[in-house]
Design a protein that fits this description.
10 strands, alpha+beta, single chain, 46% helix, four-stranded antiparallel β-sheet, six-stranded antiparallel β-sheet, Arc Repressor Mutant, subunit A, globular
Length: 323
């Protein structure tokens, strides 16, 4: 069953009766955001900008499911749509909705609406917990303890969309960026914090929150993924008992700590196989597997093919894209 806190495909009107198209103003804002992203990309890919933590993304075609790790960020879409699978949850977002990730999450994503005539266009703003905490000073810190899912979709208000447009527009006046970009980013955080998923957003910065404690455990797993996993040690780090850690971890990531570790190991092994031309056994041992057979079995379960066959397919697809 989908998690009760997340919003799936957004269409029609939200729970307060707001129209998701936001009227003509939102339509005009989306069009301007799309024009700005097109102008500052011009081709498919993800592009860094002179605004710290801001990336612009363009894709002219839909994709097959891609396994990756999403880092904390806000994604606001100007055109096209995407679906992200996290455990048994799925999040669909497009124009008039935004996607927020508050902790590192291994997900499967797929572009479901994009074409050469109408490419997928979005902006991705990396999240800074310290800046979120600063934004929260003096704000009501309700929901401070219970862990929240580490990803959500919410309706993009005209005010949030306006701030997004102004942030990308600053790329046309580089001299203004150091002075104005921090203010606009702060406004974006504020608009999201005031949305229907504001409680989950605040969890990112609250030092004692369940989400922030799980974030520390996630950071440790990502750092030491090739080492044996000791639940008791991770639980002590989170100031929880083992059963409490398991419950909170699954609440945030939709995965158990062991499932999370497996996803991180397998995705790193896939990267090594592509980048360093290792054989499957070497890649397995590099990421912490003691059994190459178990590695191959779990690799095929996640990626759909055994390691060697999967890497061959990926390389053939890359050659076809270049041609």
């Amino acid at each position: 069953m989908p998690h009760p806190q997340f919003t799936s495909a957004l269409s029609g009107a939200d729970q307060d009766g707001h129209s998701f198209d936001g009227g003509h103003k939102s339509v005009d804002q989306l069009a301007e955001l799309g024009r700005l992203i097109e102008r500052h990309t011009g081709r498919d890919g993800m592009f860094g900008t002179s605004v710290p933590s801001l990336h612009l993304i363009r894709s002219s075609k839909t994709t097959l499911p891609v396994n990756t790790v999403y880092e904390p960020a806000i994604v606001i879409v100007a055109r096209g749509s995407k679906i992200v699978m996290l455990g048994e949850d799925s999040f669909t977002y497009g124009p008039s909705s935004h996607f927020v990730v508050s902790v590192d999450l291994p997900v499967t994503s797929r572009l479901i609406q994009a074409s050469p005539e109408a490419p997928y266009l979005c902006m991705r703003l990396g999240l800074n917990p310290a800046q979120v905490l600063e934004m929260m000073q003096g704000a009501d810190a309700e929901d401070g303890r219970e862990a929240k899912r580490g990803a959500f979709v919410d309706w993009t208000s005209p005010e949030l969309l306006d701030a997004a447009v102004r942030l990308v527009r600053l790329l046309d006046t580089p001299g203004d960026i150091p002075h104005l970009a921090p203010l606009v980013v702060r406004e974006i955080y504020y608009r999201i914090m005031k949305g229907s998923q504001g409680g989950a957003f605040k969890q990112l910065a609250l030092a004692g929150s369940g989400t922030s404690r799980i974030a520390r455990v996630i950071a440790r797993i990502k750092l030491d993924y090739a080492q044996p996993l000791h639940i008791d040690e991770l639980a002590r780090m989170a100031h929880m008992g083992p059963s409490s850690l398991h419950r909170h971890f699954k609440e945030v990531t939709a995965l158990s700590p062991l499932q999370y570790l497996k996803r991180i190991r397998l995705q790193e092994a896939r990267r090594l196989l592509l980048a360093e031309s290792l054989d499957a056994a070497d890649a397995a041992y590099r990421v912490g597997y003691e059994s190459a057979t178990q590695f191959s079995r779990e690799y095929a379960r996640l990626f759909g093919l055994p390691p060697i066959s999967d890497i061959k397919r990926l390389r053939e697809e890359t050659v076809q894209e270049i041609d």
